Amino acid sequence: xxxxxxxxxxxxxxxxxxxxxxxxxxxxxxxxxxxxxxxxxxxxxxxxxxxxxxxxxxxxxxxxxxxxxxxxxxxxxxxxxxxxxxxxxxxxxxxxxxxxxxxxxxxxxxxxxxxxxxxxxxxxxxxxxxxxxxxxxxxxxxxxxxxxxxxxxxxxxxxxxxxxxxxxxxxxxxxxxxxxxxxxxxxxxxxxxxxxxxxxxxxxxxxxxxxxxxxxxxxxxxxxxxxxxxxxxxxxxxxxxxxxxxxxxxxxxxxxxxxxxxxxxxxxxxxxxxxxxxxxxxxxxxxxxxxxxxxxxxxxxxxxxxxxxxxxxxxxxxxxxxxxxxxxxxxxxxxxxxxxxxxxxxxxxxxxxxxxxxxxxxxxxxxxxxxxxxxxxxxxxxxxxxxxxxxxxxxxxxxxxxxxxxxxxxxxxxxxxxxxxxxxxxxxxxxxxxxxxxxxxxxxxxxxxxxx
Length: 452
Prior knowledge:
Elements: H1 2-32, E1 36-42, E2 44-49, E3 53-67, E4 72-77, E5 84-85, E6 90-94, H2 97-132, H3 138-171, E7 173-175, E8 180-182, E9 192-193, E10 201-218, H4 219-231, E11 234-236, H5 246-249, E12 260-264, E13 275-280, E14 290-297, E15 311-317, E16 319-328, E17 333-335, E18 338-344, E19 350-360, E20 363-368, E21 375-377, E22 390-394, H6 411-422, E23 430-431, H7 436-450
Parallel strand pairs: 1-22
Antiparallel strand pairs: 1-21, 2-16, 3-10, 3-15, 4-6, 4-9, 4-23, 5-8, 6-7, 8-10, 10-14, 11-16, 12-15, 13-14, 16-20, 17-18, 18-19, 18-21, 19-20
């Protein structure tokens, strides 16, 4: 009996095991075939401004040292340190006593020379008549001519001495050679200064209208800009290439220029005036692999929103990428082989596509490797592999339009501060006690005469 039931039971058990294993395999196969859901965007093609910012530093269009040209005791400082002064305003007064005496001596020497000239002229006139009558020898006549010529030359020498003394006396009034901001005094009132050496430096001045902003463009970007312009991929502000010739561009104001520069202040606002490029370096800086560029900004209100030495950022405005191919920065994987984008093909499979691209803001401008309308994975690239089947969840990719920032919010406050400074009654002028009144009277008379 036992042998009779063993075979059917064994067959039944084997059949159940086969069904169970088959069901497990089908379940596993069904789980592996589910495609991965990924975020994706379409590659966009549109015109895009060259919107790259560069660090820059502001400089005055003129930055000069004010030095004494004669020596002596510094009697007075006649300006407020840090204020805006007009060309011709007296800044310092140097003790002029010895130079007045020198001028008087020179004038006396000139008077003597003129008297001698008149005497020799009369002698020459008499000798000329006597010589006509053979009343004097030729030698005496020649001596009279020589004496007269010498006297005339001595008058010229004496006149030069007077001019030199007048110049030296004038140098005791140190005036502003330009209009601009006068800096901190380098020598205090009462100091003995000399025309030679460090003691001759009295202060510095900087001209703030116009202002220069110096920045550097990486050579690689400059090459791309130049190559794009030559190929037509990049348009520089105007279809009229005549305006981009140096001789024509220099004639234009910043508002007329097809390509101009904007200065972004530290608070993120824009400086109110546009800048015009006035200088491109002729050679590359081998240490930084960049080209030095200088832009000129008008400052008609003498505002201090931009100050020499200040660090700002600048934008080149007017360069446009035509039909640029754009993808978000998150859609690019940087690998040892270069930049890669994961393209989703018609079968919803991932294809690794090498690309050539430059980053601007939060997106890449693709020069090779992608076409408009293709679908690329927009994030999470690190967890994906080529050949994977995916389900694309399409996202909206909107490249940034050109932004226009508001004028600097601080300019009004700066203007008020400047007005308060300029209306002050020179509270920090300095002078030696015995010379204060005299120095102020001299400065007032000088300003009235020059109309400054």
